[in-house]
Amino acid sequence: MIRVQGLYKNFGSFRALDDLNLEVEPGQVLGLLGPNGAGKTTTVRVLTTLLSPDSGEVTVAGHNVKKDPDSVRRSIGLSGQYAAVDEKLTGFENLVMVARLYGMNRKSSAARANELLDEFRLSDVAGKRAGAYSGGMRRRLDLAGAIVARPEVVILDEPTTGLDPRGRLDTWAVISSLVGNGTTVLLTTQYLEEADQLADNIAVIDAGRVIAEGTANELKSRIGSERIDIVTALPENLERAGAILAGIASRAPEIDSQTRTISVAAPDGHHMLVRALEELEFADVKVLEAALRRPTLDDVFLQLTGQRAETQPSGDESSLHAAENQEALQA
Fold first, then answer.
1. Digit-coded pLDDT (tens) for 229-271
2. Which CATH number fits domain 2-85+133-220+309-330: 3.30.70.270, 3.90.1140.10, 3.40.50.300, 3.40.50.150?
3. Which regions of the chain does DSSP assign to beta strands (E)?
């Protein structure tokens, strides 16, 4: 349902997408992960015809994004990073407007709007102007608008940003329901547990190209072993504890000074954990928490990209987004 082959996209001298290749089978969810500036939003804008590729072949629901953009738009639903709702209209009126734009008649539009308002827990505010909604409520209304016409392909660009935990779970349930009914979903997210929960396959992109892909378990297996997490009681013990764990594991651990957490791969599992606790106690390093766990997608992300998933964009990345926005507006 989505095929991207040899996709390139430049903004001046900056190459945002560099021989990108993706494929999503019907009825599956592809999680697209990557650090800020990796090319996720550029990819979404090409798939939704907001940006034109410089070269490469891109098809969505069998339609070429350059040769037949109108058919692509009729086949997709989109929820972007920011809620796109008309704040002067009520929640009900927003959804009816979207349904009418898709060509549905008044009766069908109203019925579909009421169905989605109920599904997204917005029925009690259906008659209120969207401008009075909370950020999370606007986000849910925007997502509802993306699936009004039951599109073949739904593209969700960080759909749960700004939602509370209940809203996020509700959104996950809706996405799962969509896939259960045969809809194909491309999901970009920086919440790695979201990709772990929802995605059939995951593609990690960096510098505009895919650097790893597979199921969540396949990607986690790349880390290879279990991991030890140690939380020290005192910040001044971090350096000493890190050196002890480095000596045991024969590799540099990851240290988070804010949470006073040290994490390191543990090929010998619980034997290494027991040894670590013994040596930390001998060194008079007080430990608040100690755990042996399987690798997470966050570990995979950090190993592949060198940074955590949730980071702030740099000035260069902000300039890139401005260039993307300008070209999208011109398109």
1. 999 999 999 999 999 999 998 888 989 999 999 999 888 888 9
2. 3.40.50.300
3. 2-11, 14-24, 29-33, 55-60, 63-64, 76-79, 153-157, 184-188, 201-206, 209-214, 226-232, 254-256, 261-266, 287-293
Q: Compute the Cα dihedral for 137, 142, 144, 148 and give only its sign.
A: positive
DSSP annotation string for 218-252? HHHHTT-SEEEEEEESSGGGHHHHHHHHHHHHTSP
**How confident is the model at residue 314, as a pLDDT?**
43
The model's pTM: 0.77
The answer to whether the CB of 307 falls within 8 A of the CB of 207 is no
DSSP sequence for 261-303: EEEEEETTTHHHHHHHHHHHHHTT--EEEEEEE---HHHHHHH
Q: Which fold has domain 225-294?
A: Alpha-Beta Plaits (3.30.70)
Among residues 66, 65, 85, 87, which one has the least CA distance to residue 76? Answer: 65
Count CA atoms within 13 Å of residue 6 on its CB side.
Answer: 3
- Domain residue spans of the chain: 2-85+133-220+309-330, 225-294
